[in-house]
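Acetophenone carboxylase gamma subunit
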Amino acid sequence: MRLGVDVGGTFTDLLLQDDISKRTYRAKTPSTPEDQSIGVETGIRLICERAGVSPSDISVVLHGTTVATNAVLEGKGARVGLLVTKGFEHTLHLAKSWTPGPLFGWIVMEKPDPLAALRDTRGIPERMTARGEIMTELDEARAVALIDDLCGSGIEALTISLMHSYANPAHEQRLREIVAERFPDLQVSLSSEILPEFREYDRAITTVMNDYVRPIMTRYLSRIENRLRDAGVASKLHIVRSDGGLMSAAAASDRPVYTVLSGPAGGVTATGMVARRTGLNKLLAFDMGGTSTDVSVILDGEPMITRSTEVGYFPAKVPTLDVRSVGAGGGSIAEVAELTSSLRVGPRSAGAVPGPVAYRRGGTEPTVSDANVVLGYLPQKLLGGDMDLDVEGARTAVAGIGEQIGLSPEDAALGILDIANEVMLGALRVITVQRGLDPRDFGIVAFGGAGPLHGNAMAALLGCYPVVIPANPGVLSALGFLEAEFKNEFVQTLIRATSEGEDSVIWDHFATLRAKAVAWLDEQEIESADRGLSYTLDLRYEQQGFEVSIPVPAESVETASDLASVLGNFHETHERLYGVRFDLPIELVALRVIATGATPAVEDTPPAAGSVDPKDAVIEVSRAYFAGAWQETTHYDRDRLAVGARVEGPAIIRQYDTTTVLLPDHYAEVDDHGNLMIWPVKKGA
């Protein structure tokens, strides 16, 4: 029995997969921002009770967490000390000399303080060249004095990031030995291990970010492992990486920077699974939760991977799924701006506490969820009847907004949803239109607690169909964790012209990286049959600023063949991505070996019960507000809709973990995999 746990801003979602009976169980419980592990323990007890099993029956726990992300965004990380090469103490301050505005951006930009303060930075006398040759020997006597001064000042973690250490880490390793001798309890990260790549600022900030969140992540994982034991769970805990892979809890404690986008990764992985099973190779993932919405693109059934991301103002050069986030969710607060008297929604969120007014947890400000309640899109009871909504409270809160701008409660609620939809539409345009992709060529998978409420409306705005509502949309991210595989990436910067002809050097480096990858697979106890190794080269035209990753066939690595086919692939890939190829020398930048360990797939289980006739699934008929008027709207129980059942809009389709809104002039049909497929009537006629 495998358990996926996704901690969100409002709810903690859990999905339990019984690999023997092929049954899945789901549960949602309010998140506990003061200590996320409390909500996780509560959820585990709840889902085990629902499944009729003991916590000791769980064989593995797969957990996505936002602990690292929140620590950076909220500025609540550890006090980090930084050792750099003498003369480069201002690396984090200079950054990339970039401002967010194209014109006069520097006038309005409030540049954040670096994650490691200048007062906690020390310059070590030493220097390596870009080829890894020692230019200036390490001055150990001076290094000891600087280390004693810095580490004795109260720092909680230490980053060592020296010039060109990716080419030769000897000085970084020696400094770590000195620190271990004098301050054995201090957590230390080396840039040559966290990110052994060139570009000094990227390597330094990524490693500092690792230490900035490391003590917090270590404490959190310790708490959650203790709570798992208290709940009776004896299995191992694995953490989801930003690229959708898995890592052990111990590895996550050492390298938490690889989890900065852990939360959204599960939903993107699950969307890829939906694409492969339905044959819809072009999909947009639309994950709307309580505090934010995450969107991404699936092409040819696979999510897009990027080598870097941003957490707030700070870049993190780690492999991540290409996800864009906006501050719009079910808990986003609606308010009227004082100066302009205009309605705005988000990015402030009511979160889990106090939450939307309708949730009866002390919330007083109207939210997107309250607007859905006012319009009749949400039933009076959620979570299978476990949560009773305060309909009148939500209406009173939304009516207060309406009075300020001269609108009825219904039109104010509709305005709140329209603005929230426009915010989310902007994120979807960024990942499609701004990249030359036509959203009309895509379907959209709507999931998360609020995704199915807004999915049909987003598709109508973008013209992307079908809208796919998976069988377990409210807990789809937790399901995606079960689909994730173990993954780690091993990289070596090697800047050289490919025309130099010394291909043997490249194959030797690949052999070294492969040995590290195999050793990691051994540490993770991955069975031989489940192991996978893939190889890539980062290439660019000579003097270009950025590179493109090109796969290298495994047989080419094993037989040390020539690079002609790989270089030809680079030309084709560059032309496909940027519309041009050049007759210029190609330069090698880095080699990568990606190790993977397969996990059991979650089997596709279409509805076994229910009826093709939607009349057999009717729960009630109540009023809902569509197209500026109240309409009698049928509510259906999704669990009673069998494969082939077709529901005409407008309709509300209810299930334990979410509610789906089907707009007028649309219909929904249950496909062979149990997904709800929403189409406009004109297209499906």
